[in-house]
Specification:
By secondary structure, the protein is an alpha+beta fold. It is 59% helix and 14% strand. The strands form 2 sheets. The protein has a 5-stranded antiparallel β-sheet.
Length: 252
């Protein structure tokens, strides 16, 4: 309930800011939606991308752009925008369903085996929540701890139950802060990307004269380890590594 309320408030704030910058997001969304319903996916996509170009970000926008690209048969870009929507709204069932459906058309999958039980456990906890929500939870718990300790000192409370509750709050503050740090590191400090071209060669070095390690297909995701002018050194989920032409991929 709190998560849904927070998402609604964020959307309302973005809508208010968009009005201040002189474009009517609601009107554009409705217009694009009408074109989409009439199966004019080119015009719908044009309007949605116009909204995105005005620095507007939201899971519904990225979801709709992904749907347009899917209808146009550009599955690499569809997966890209579903992943962007998923980043802003983790656990959204519509995004999850469309993303998995689009991935069914991928000729190759490269899921890796997660051998670190600690990171697997943390991923299981944080994947369904946004960084904003986790950070808010950590902040609220910290404020509650400070208020509780202040009350204890002012009223000079004693007793085992009082101490246990204080230790519990301290534990929750440390856990929530650690999860927020982990979420920030994995989702924002680590750059991730996806192949949007139908096929692209993964090379042993940053240049066309290098050996081809293997051929990557649309929808494959990776982390970016290094950048040059025209190439990224990327690491795929199955731990295979190589250089890919930047024009064939997009950052999530």
């Amino acid at each position: 309930m709190f998560k849904s309320t927070l998402q609604v408030l964020l959307i309302l704030m973005v809508l208010a800011l968009s009005s201040a910058y002189g474009f009517n997001t609601d009107s554009l969304f409705n217009s694009a939606g009408n074109y989409y319903q009439n199966q004019d996916y080119d015009e719908a996509l044009k309007i949605y991308l116009e909204i995105e170009q005005k620095s507007y970000e939201s899971a519904p926008l990225y979801f709709n752009i992904g749907n347009c690209f899917f209808k146009k048969g550009k599955l690499g870009y569809a997966i890209l925008y579903y992943l962007r929507a998923q980043k802003l709204s983790p656990g959204d069932p519509d995004v999850e369903t469309n993303l998995e459906f689009a991935r069914m058309f991928m000729p190759t999958r490269m899921e890796g085996i997660k051998i670190n039980p600690v990171t697997t456990f943390f991923d299981l906890i944080v994947d369904s929540y946004t960084l904003t929500l986790i950070a808010w939870a950590a902040s609220v718990l910290f404020i509650l701890l400070m208020l509780y300790l202040s009350v204890i000192m002012f009223l000079q409370w004693r007793g085992l139950v009082i101490k246990i509750f204080a230790y519990l709050l301290i534990f929750l503050v440390f856990v929530s802060s650690g999860l927020a740090t982990y979420k920030y590191r994995t989702d924002y400090m680590t750059e991730k990307g996806v192949i949007v071209a139908d096929e692209t060669r993964i090379l042993s070095g940053p240049g066309e004269d290098n050996d081809v390690e293997f051929v990557g297909v649309f929808g494959l995701t990776f982390t970016i380890e290094k950048e040059t002018d025209n190439y990224y050194l990327v690491l795929f989920e199955n731990k295979r590594k190589g250089w890919v032409l930047s024009g064939d991929v997009e950052k999530i």
